[in-house]
Amino acid sequence: MSYIARIQQHAQQRPDAPALSQKTEAGWQTWVWQDVWLQIEQIAAELHQDGIRRGDRVAIFAENAPIWTLVDLACVYLGVVSVPIYATSSPEQVRYILNHAGCRALFADGGLLSAVAPALSGVASLDVVIRFGEGADGVAIDSWLQRRSARVPPVYCRSEELYTLVYTSGTTGQPKGVMLTHGNLMGSMTAHLSSLTFNQGDRSLAVLPLSHVFERGWTAIVLFAGGHNHYLSDINRLAEYLAEVKPHVFCAVPRVFEKIHAGIFQKANAAGGLSLKVLTWVDQWNRDNQQRLAAGDKLSLYRKLLQGLARGLVGRKIKTALGGHTRFIPCGGAALDTDIHAFFMGLGVNLKIGYGLTETMATVSFMPDQGYRLGTLGRPMPGIEIKISPTDGEILVRSPSMTVGYYNDPEATQTLIRDGWLHTGDAGHLDDEGNLVFRERLKELMKTSGGKYIAPQHVEGVIAREALVEQVAVIADARNYATALIVPAWESLEERARTMGIRFSSRLDLIRHADIVAYFEQQLATLQAHLPRYERVKRFTLLAEPFTVESGEITPTLKLKRRVIVQRFKDEIEAMYQTR
């Protein structure tokens, strides 16, 4: 059954069951399945009235909200190709994507639309601009829908027809439009729903941007299964939403759990005494148990009893903070430190680490419920093949969910897909149990002047365990040792400074204080003690301002644009390589 046919089935068989929810100033607003279907029909009718036809491209430039999903589903209903754009995109990026995709319509939040409105004059293909919420630009969606155009029948697309164009973040050069078909979508949903338990009525919270294929793909799975999707538009309110929604599932990136982990230990260190002793014991016990399980050993009754005690003392509080009902949490987009993963898994928080790309409609492997080995990315999902290139260890994928290529870019497509296999650009291996083990990103691998190879993301992940670190960029390519640019977690750093009795008048004043620099040196030495000497960051610079999308230093998916960073901070970097 196709995606849109399944949505229609839910509306017919469970018309009054909740489907989509959004928090407003008046409380939670919910659309039941019948409402969802009627809205999809009406949006599709208005697009059709404006001349949008099967195969045309329609862009969505907005924060997470039910209307985002309703427009996306209306595109599926009409056989139209949706083009998501990150809410953090610059006017130039928006214009590039609209032009490259040849978009005929744009749906956008009022505030975002105002910011990019001047750039839209350079998009010749654009005929319709619809605004969500307040603003002076475009046509308000409420008045647009009030035209009450005649309904049109749904289009049931063939598997080879395009479902969406998802533009990659573009860490180097312009983003590429990943072509994902209806067959790719159905292949991904089939693989997930045959591997995971998600039932009708189960609650999910959309935490990550819907413009990212990870959250977008999971939302499609939730709705296909008949779940109830809730929308988070402000990540700073995550704790509040988790407590209210009590989701069974929500997707996350490792940084969420790095910060939770760091916060737990920071509070324990501040409290000292019994709290710190209990947490230290729990952490060590969890780590030891997880290592035993990873080695294929069974836990003794004594160890199981103590594991249960640890979950009662610490795990219960964490699970309650996550809503109290989570069965599993898909976690991807970057590497998660093995010790942090062991900490949460040992306490009963099921973080399902996996591997995937935009080009594979997100996940291709993830950890199974039983027999998971720490430090791996799990096993391939049903119907998905993974093999390792014998020449350079590159991870190759072949699956029903993998892209057919890049839009209007045959050269890049030929590089990506060769002999039916998608070349990921990542290196790794399969262990003796068939688990995928990530080694490094081939294009990001750095070679020191001494000939040693460093995978910067691994080192950055180690340093990011420190509660006072918000962002970090490692420098090592063609250098004789590794250095780092570090953006502090300001709230935690200011609290630490007060604890140390340090007076400061500004952030710049704070990061230049000798005691603060010495404290970071001490923490980095401890964190990196297990790394080979050539991988350890020997010098670092604390930055007063964060890396941002607006300044071009990170992508909308928070990946570092290393070339930009190296160029922008060349003076700070060179200073770290001057002889003291």
From TrEMBL:
GO CC, alphabetical: membrane
GO molecular-function terms, A-Z: ATP binding; long-chain fatty acid-CoA ligase activity
Chemical reaction(s) catalysed: a long-chain fatty acid + ATP + CoA = a long-chain fatty acyl-CoA + AMP + diphosphate
PROSITE patterns: AMP_BINDING
Keywords of this entry: ATP-binding, Ligase, Nucleotide-binding
UniProt domain AMP-dependent synthetase/ligase: residue ranges: 8-407
Lineage: superkingdom: Bacteria
Stored PANTHER family: AMP-BINDING DOMAIN-CONTAINING PROTEIN-RELATED, LONG-CHAIN-FATTY-ACID--COA LIGASE
Protein name per its UniProtKB record: Long-chain-fatty-acid--CoA ligase (Long-chain acyl-CoA synthetase) (LACS)
Organism: Reinekea blandensis MED297
